[in-house]
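step: validate -> pass
step: tokenize input -> pass
step: predict -> running
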Amino acid sequence: TQIDFSESTTYSHTQFSAAVEWTINHNLNFNPNVSLVNTSGQSLIGRVVYDNLNTLRVLFNKAYSGSGYLS
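step: predict -> pass
step: emit ->
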């Protein structure tokens, strides 16, 4: 797969309401690396499921709010 660097290659997602599943529509057209933090800035570990090249879900064993950084 070729990446077109004229398009954005990063995406930031904010999950305002706590949830056990975050759906992130990033429209990057590839499966990005995912870094997750809670609202206190602490790292989170979740299972990332790539639904397609533009959407992923993060599954947690308890509800969190926070941010996801994709690259």
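step: describe -> The beta strands are 11-25, 34-38, 47-52, 55-70.
step: cleanup -> pass
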